[in-house]
């Protein structure tokens, strides 16, 4: 049976819906923190297209296509109809599996359809996230005893699902208990709770020995126009800033808050002549004696454990200004000291867990856990004392409520569900609660710990959230989780997903027992999943020590999540001899794909969602697929990360690839035959791609499917000498075959009629115009053109973190009779401002005439394809308008040159006579 995903995929609908709305996955992401975010639109399309058949009847094909397109209009759209089609094809035994489930975005889509779904992940944190998203919301909890935290009369008026109702009650009760337990350590001022507190780390000056705070930002609230909530009148808010006032005689410093922009320089300053992004960091300038400490000196101070936390300011919630900042009161300073004392007296979470996390941060984590650079050795070191006390209190509230629910008669599963959602809020709150969380003076909020993607940020000046209901508070974070849960609650026809912890290299399923394996595997060195989530793990296992005891079971010597079979390339791991290197990744991803191949049904598919710009990574991935005994049969591009910036690690376009178990008894193939089959197959598929509206750049990526399908018909492919051919060889060929199938014409001239360098340039402009692209795309196009990268690097220059087609002014090549058409065209554009004579000289230097069809066709193409307001488009249009004049000027130059040559010959002859 051919599957839909092997012949068609709703690329346009996935791209459109991945950017916003239901298909973005933003609501699902809000249930619990995890790092890989697979858009719901792509997860849904990959799941249903992997389960649905591809009929032989064209009318049936069209009917199913329309059904899938309609299903892509909403989170639950056409769920019943899709399920009926799957059951009609597969019976009631249809099933799906994601062996790298993460938070469960892909298996969730099968569960929503009412199809048997299985999710597996190596990380305990990811397993918890998957259970909260794909399992518990799909269960019926109506038989559970009423929990003791509901407000009186709630059951009579509550219209929300039972699970949502009870999670809300539990989260609210935790908020009440947390506030009550910590109120003496976060005292009210003027009858209200502060939103939070600004802190800085202090170090001793190596010149005068006085401690001073390390501060890089003095803005507290940016100036802006605001509206009075009472009078509704608009007024100008000058904003707030502060500075450190150092008294040299007493050796003490104080904080001065004032309106407007900063009046002094911060104590952390960019060295003269350096960029703020320089790897050497900023200087720490003592406000007492102005002595400057470079990064190496600062690091030595941290290594000797001489740094100290110091509170600077309090932030109150202001009805009109949002947040207002002030110096701390005496009782607030006393409360901080009391919290430090109380932390030292906190009892353990049972015999094996200290109150404050003492799990060591594994070595080699300077990139992922940036606090290790500044002296943090355990995960308990990442917060100040009062923050740590706050999270110990939250974890105990969650633990205690689990015990109370057990006494109430609630089932173990329901207790795990309710405490699990509470732990999810705990994890989400951690993102706003370490020394890595800074103040955002523009938006009046606290920045995310993961401000730099999946690495845990660190800052010398940071913000601590208090007990008020502001951004980052328990109430605020809990509200986000609750709304996400309510928004994503499935239809009644959904079935709970079976979620388990395990390794993708040893799946606990029988051979040929799964209809479709649909997965989004780890991408090489993209994210350090376990290292980045260990901070969550050490706190979650404390909160769930009784209700989820298995979460705390780990073989890692430091008590963190296991790493042995994690399939990643560890960032910065080489310097630490981390076992998670490229060889480890390539070996284990191959084993994982081999296991997927083992468990998938003979007529089923293994669908792999993958995105990476580097050709070398694709080579390794395709090799892994091949070595796992899989054959790639379909590849479909979608812009699932459209907000990404060129050069960043987040991928803009990903491929959804369908693979099948390789059939036995395949013959040996010959390179020439396989190349012909690839060209023929892509030529046939191109007609469908064009009819379905795939853009040319998307066709290039889609070409991987039919190319690898052709290669997969053979056990191996040999060249003319009988040597094995690397399957990756055929990927650039497939991209070139798309170009050939498109039969691109340059002003009625076939693209193949041009020289190789010009073909490359015109094809690039055909695809991208002047738009910046990732540098990896340049490597792809050079490979497809059978050109060395150095042969075209001067045509596509660096532009920011990407590359862009050069302008004529940037063209530096010398024009002669061997120059490519593209070089002559650019030289003419550059010379156009100098007049006909200059352009005529270019034409003569190139040995070309006004009748050169290829040259003028290329000029016309570039003028049409480049943006209308592009300087080169204007210049080339000028060249076209004056074509006759350029030809005449060239003839005049040529005649003048001939005349000069004749005159020189006469002069030489006369000299010889003398």
Automatic annotation (TrEMBL):
Residues 257-276 are annotated as: Disordered. It comes from Nonomuraea harbinensis. This is DUF1156 domain-containing protein. It comes from the Bacteria.
